[in-house]
Every structure is written in structure tokens, then in C-alpha cells.
Specification:
The complex is a heterodimer of chains A (303) and B (666). Chain A contains five helices and 17 strands. With 303 residues, chain A is α+β, with helices and mostly antiparallel strands. Chain B is of the alpha+beta class. The chains are: A alpha+beta (303), B alpha+beta (666).
Amino acid sequence: MKARKLPLIYPTAGFAGLLFVLGAMWYAASSQNNTAVYLLLFALTAVFLVSIPHTLVNLAGVTATLESVQPAFVGQEVSLPLEIMNDSRATRHGIELALSGSDKERQRIDYIPAHKAARITLRFPARERGEHRVETLRLTSAYPLGFIRFVKEVSSSQTYIVYPKPAGDVRLPSSFVDKGDGRPVTELGEGDDFAGTRGYIHGESQRHIDWRAVARGQPLMTKQFTAEAEGVVYLDFSALHFVDVEERLSQLALWLIEAERARRPYGLRLPGAEIPPAVGQSHFHQCMRALSLFQVKKQEVRA
Amino acid sequence: MSESKRDRSIPRRPLLWLAAALLFTVPPMIGSLASWVPGVFLLGLAMKFWMEPRGYRLRLTALKLVLAVVALFAILASYGSLKGVAPPISLLVVLMSLKILEAHTAREFQVMVLMGWVLCLCGFFLSQDFVIALSIMAAFALLVVALVQFYRGSSPGAFWPPLAATCKILVQAVPLIVLLFVLFPRINTGLRFDFRAAGSLSTGFSDHLYPGSVAALATSSDVAFRAEFPGSTVAPPGSMYWRGAVMWHCEGMEWRAPYVPVPISGLARELPKGNQVRQRITLAPHGARWMFALDRPFEIPSGAILARGNYLWSVQTIRKARRYEVASSVGIGGKELTPGERREALEVPPSISPAVRELAKSWATQDSNPRAIVNSALQFFGTQGFHYSLTPGEYGKNGLEQFLFHRRVGFCEHYAAGFATLMRLAGIPARVVVGYLGGEYNELGHFVLVRQADAHAWCEVWLPETGWTRLDPTTAVAPGRATLDLISFLERGNASAQMEARRSAFVTRLARSALFTDIRLAWQTLSYEWDSRILAYDADVQDVMLDSIGLANRGPFVLIVEILIVAIALLVIYFGWMQLRTRSAADRVKTLYERFCRKAARLGARRDPWEGPSDFSTRAALLLPNESERIRQISNTYIALRYAPESAGAALDTFAKEVRAFGAYR
């Protein structure tokens, strides 16, 4: 990640208070010719001034590295896992991290010892499907007095993908495109027969999570039920009759999850693109990616 | 390395530091606060420590308002009004207590620290004594520690690390403080506000001498002034009579100085004769216009006049420590007494009783020589069983007669007033002088410390041969008083019963022990330095100072810009120094290697951006055969430092040396 050369200086809210107190001291000192108050005024001014290089040096040698970002669905949170490295020979205190867009979502690291790193995850809501560039990250330091803060902006060329929100109430189509063996294909995933468990996929319904396994400390697993044998299903954009593109994409995203959960081979047909049927994580993400980037203009990749 | 949500509650550790700081802000104000306010303040602090871990706090706006209004009324009830300086300060302290109970966010913590600094300001407003200054300085530093600790969050170490960080900041701030203090222009805004209640600060004696007025000061250990003697490290020999004011108006046992003294015109001034003593005096603020000098001053410091009667009188009320130089002469050449002055110096009120008049007349008829009359009077005081006492009791309406014929017990003001009145009745012009007598000589600081307890009153009579002549009737009653300070005198004599009752024997013995005396003298010296070097550094002294270092005659804004430039330079130096001290070894290796490459380029071997260090070393060695050995050495060290798993500090230093040596001579 690239850092801009010089950190920028900003006053904090406390700075206004400090100015007020300094003003009051100056007024009192000059109107009463009170040397002791002058001394107090100068001491406070000097301490504040000296805190400026201390705050600046607190950011020296501190770098942020963004690790790979997992895709997220619209309406969920995107997590940015970050490693904050302190390359200097001194402990750095009170480093705050925020994305330049949202100052509220601020994370604080109380201290990083010399030559050590701290890990932190910044979360923000995923609003729009598509591929987005990670926004500029702001490394902030207000230590030691908090009257001013220095902000080091770190930009990254890394991107993350936001999948469309899985939604809709059309049932997963039955397999009308069978492979010619004439076997009837029945509804999947909603049957009564327990067919084992598999890893939980982000975004799918939590109804079938094996909570007992979670309680035993195992990772999230989804229980699978099948009613009948499986068959290949084609999820077709043009087969849906909604007017809204986003609605269609949401429905397709839900179907993808359901089909993947049912371990039923599925293919995806979008106008101008087709992904042949398959099953499995990489196939799932490939399809989702295609949905996310569908008809997204290049400009929407935020710079 | 933990994340914490800081907007929920204030952590305990910074709160402890803040509490410690606030405890130091209150004592300097205690004298002016309403008696219940410090209690409320301590209660608020204690409550906070009880409430904070439990998540309780003052939340309801209505309750806060009610409490604030209650506080306002309580203060109104205690003082009767909100005027003056004490009630607003009390109110501020109570509101601070409420704020403590309410605060819970980061911003509010900062607000509390800022309010702590405002309390420091209030402390200095009430008094600038050295003890108070120490307390306020401690509070100031502890507030910085609290803030540092707050921003350190959960970093390890609650005591030394924040303290060390603060010390570093404070030490670095010292040059800036000195710079600002010495050079920052004291712009007088002309926005004066005078909120001292009338007479609240006026300490020391008044322009009115009456029985008990000097004795009331005798137990006060407050410092009146300090005097240095430039060019001499010892106090002048003889009794030190510090002249304060001259009283002309006689009312028997009561004497008054003129409200507005008349300055002596240049022609009428008496000329010095004999030894001159130069003094540099640092006067504690007393809210009046008295200025003191050894008997008698003939040189007038700036901002003062020499009033009729040869005493100094400040043009302005003395509300802050003031430093001035004055020269005195023991003998002053006599001038003729003008008829007007003679009339004034012989005036007696008609209310004097016949018995007293008779006494004075008897001396005058016995021998008309003024000197003989004076001697008769002194003899009268010396032999007729007069006692010197701090608590002579009340004297009623016919006080003078009671004092001279019945009770015969009094303090210096009784003797001075009685003696001067008798002299006037006997036809000798007389006046009363008030001031101080003696003082404690400080061996360490070479100065004399004069306390309020040294206040004294004596007489001056006009004798044809010598002019105005000092006569101290107290010495006739209590020989030796003039050579000792009052406390020593009372301890030695029998009159000390009242004083002894106040101090236990143990404390007295302790106070007189050698070690304690040393500590006391050192303390006095420090306190003196604070008064004379810091407090006395006002706009006038600053002008002189600027003049002496050649910075005079520039506008305040030019001066401020210059100060700013120096300050910024200093801050840049601090930053560079801290940056260099904390940058990583890898950075240093890289910078050193870049320096080596620059040097090599100057010699003719330019490193291409894509060239690795070992490739460059081979090529450079070919290009610069003379330096090939050194180039190879530096490159090898660089590769070792950069890519070896563990690099030692010693290797880095040798590398730095090699790079420095490279290309230095050729």
C-alpha cells in the first residue's frame, strides 16, 4: 500500500477548547499584569507546541498492509483485514484507522511495540454490487495530548467484489434441460431426507445450520436434505420475467446458493455470457462474480 | 494492542492521574473558597471512583440543571453576592465537581483537563506565592500526565511510562517557555478589570496608627519585602530602620499619614551626607502604595515619588511583586523647618487631658534645651516601670493618660505615639514614622527578609542642630529590640508568654535547629528567586532586557513572528532528533547505501536502478580500480546487513564508518 509522503495535520475538537483556555489565560495575564499567569500561559503553549512533533513522530515507521478481502453480499459487511506494522525502534501509541469515506467507523490500536505488527479488521456495509477499489485508508495519531492529529493517507489498488443480494421467491427451476436420460428431476434442498453436511456458504439461509456442531466448536456447517436424485439445472437470466435487472440478479444469486447447497450441478446463462454447469466453491464464486459484474460500467469501479 | 471503545467510560488510570492533579489545584484556592466547597469537590472525586466501574453517572439533564442551580444559590448564600473574585472561583470548582460526575467520553476527559488548567489560572489569580506556584506547577504537570495516560489507552505501564513521556515533553518545552517568557511582548490591552473587593488584599500597616495596629501584624509571618545590597554581600551595620510612611496628624494615641502625600520639590530636598547604602528591594504586593527603603531614602525609583517627610510613595497601587533600586543615606543634611511645617509638627488635639499637658510642661520648664527635654522624656519611659508587651490590652477614650500614668504597658505604637505627642506638647516639633525594623539576613542568598511581624513605629523630632532626628522610645523601654527581629526578641525576653502559647516548645526548638535553619534559608532563597526573577519580570523589566540584548524598538508583531520562527526551528529539530533515534535499522542501512551510491556516482560509477548490489559492486570495482577493495567491502557488508536473517548493531556501525570513509580522500 502506498503512503503519501507527509502526514496532514488537523485540529481536533479539543483544540478549540485549548485555544479558549489559552485566550482566557492571555486575557487574565495581560489585563492584570500577572507574571505568574503569563508563565502558565507560556508553559501550556510550549507543551502544546512540543506535542506536535511527538504526534508526528508517532506515525513514523508505521505502515498498513491490506490482506486479501473476502467478497460480501449487498447488505452485509465487507471486512478489510489489515496488518499495521511498526518498523521503528520505539513503541507507537494510539494509532487510529479509518476509511476516508466513513470517519465513524474508526478502529484504535492502543500500542504497537517496536518491530511488531498489530492486526485489525475494518468493517463497512456493502452497498452496491460490483467490483470496488478499496478506499483510501487513514492512519491517524493524536498521541500524546490529543489537541491535534496527524493523518497519513494510505491508498491501495486492491479491489473487492460485492455480490448481489440474494432475494426472491421464485422456486429453483426444475431441471427441464436434462441430459437425455429421461429421469424426472425433483425439487431439491427442501426434502426430508438428511443427506449429510457441508460447509456454510456466506449468504445462504441460516435455517439449516448445524447449530449443535457449532456448539461443539466446529465451523459453521449446513445440513443437507434431498428428496430425490439430482439433475443439472440451468439458471437463466432471460427466463425470469421481472422488469428490474437487479431483481433478476438477486433471484439468480439466491438460486446459485440453493443449487450449491443442494450440490446440484448448475450452469448460468446471462445475456452475452454462459458458464457451463458444474458444482463447487470455485464454480460458485465464478458465477457470483459474473452476476456482480453484469452490466456494471467501468466507471463504477470507484477510483 | 487491543481495541477499545473509548466512548463508554473513562478508564481508571487516567482518572487517577487527573484526580491527583486536581488535588493540587485546590489548596492554592482554599483561602478564598467557601468553606464547604473543597468538601464537595473531594466528595465529587470520590463518588466518581465509586460510580465509574459501576457505570453510574449523572445523566439526566434536569438533574444536572437542578444541581447547578443549587450550587449557584449555595454560593450566593455563602458570600452574599457573586461579585469579586472568590465567588466565581468557588462556583467554578463546584461546577467542575459536577462535570466530573457527568463526564464519560474522550472529549469530556479533555474538557476536564482543560478545566484543570483553568483552576491553575484561578490559583495564580489569588496568589503568586512560591508555595502556591509549586502546587500549581505540580498540578499543571500532572494534568499533562493524565492526558498522556488517557491517549496511551491500555498500553502497559500506568506509572513510569506516562510520567517519563511527560517529562520528555516538559524538558523539551523548557527552552520554548524561556523563549516565550523572556521575549513574548506583554501587550497591554487596556482592558483592565478590577474585581478585587476593596481592601481585601491590603496587607501590612495602614495610614492610620492606633493602639494595637502594629501588634496585630506581630504574629504574621508573611513576607513584606526582601532587600539585596548590590555591591555588598553583608547587611549594612547598625539597626535597619525601613522607612515606610511619616505621620503628621496627631490625635493623642492615634496618628495619621496624609491620604495623598505631597511630593517634595527638587529644591526642598535634603542632600545626603555620610555613608550611602544602595538597596534592591522586591516588594510583595500589598494593595496599597507603600514603598520601603532604609532610613532615609534620597533617590527616587521610577514610578514613585518622595513624599514630604522623606518617604517613598508609589504612583500606582502595588498589586503585584515589584522590584526597585533605591539609595539611602544614614545622615541627611538638615534644612530649616518652614513655619508652616513647624506649625503642623506642633499641632495637638484639644482633647489631651490636663495631666498629660502638665507632664510635658514640667519637662519644658525644667530645661528649655530641646535635647534635655528629649532626655527627660526618654528617662521617664525608661524608669517609670513601663512594660513592652504584644498584648497590652485595650485603651479607652482617654488612652494617653491611662497609658502614661496607670497601665504603663504597650507595644511600639503606644510608645511612638505617646512620645511624639508629649514632644509636641513640650514644644518640640515631632512626627511618627512607621515601617519595619530589622529583618532576617539570609546567608545563602545574601538578602534581608523582612516580614510583617517586623512592623515598627518610631518618632522623629526636630532639633535645631541636627534637623529631623530619629528617636525610638521603644528602645528606652526594651533595650535590644532594635538589634533583633521581633520574634527573637520576644523569645529572649519575658514578654514571649503569648507567643509561646501559640507555638509549642517542640516546634520552636525544631525551628531553631541548625538543619531546619538551613532548609528554611534555602527555601527563602528559592522563594526570593521566584519573586525577584520571575514575578518581577514585567513589561518594564522586559523593555530593559530587550534593550540589553539588542532587540528593542521593534513592534510586538515582528517580535512574535521572530519567536515563531525560532519555535518552529526548535520543533523541527525535536522531530528530526526523535525520528533519527527511533527509525529502524533497515532504514538506516538503506540510507547509508544510498549515500554510498551517491558518492560512487560522483566518482564516476553510476548505479542503474535495476542493478543489484553485487552486480553494481563488480562493475564499480572495474570502473574505479583504486577503490575496488573498499567498494567490494561495503557491498558485502550491505548485502549481509540487508539480507542476512539477523543483523547486529556493531556491524551497522562499521558499515556507517565504511560509508563515511569511502571517497573521503583520494
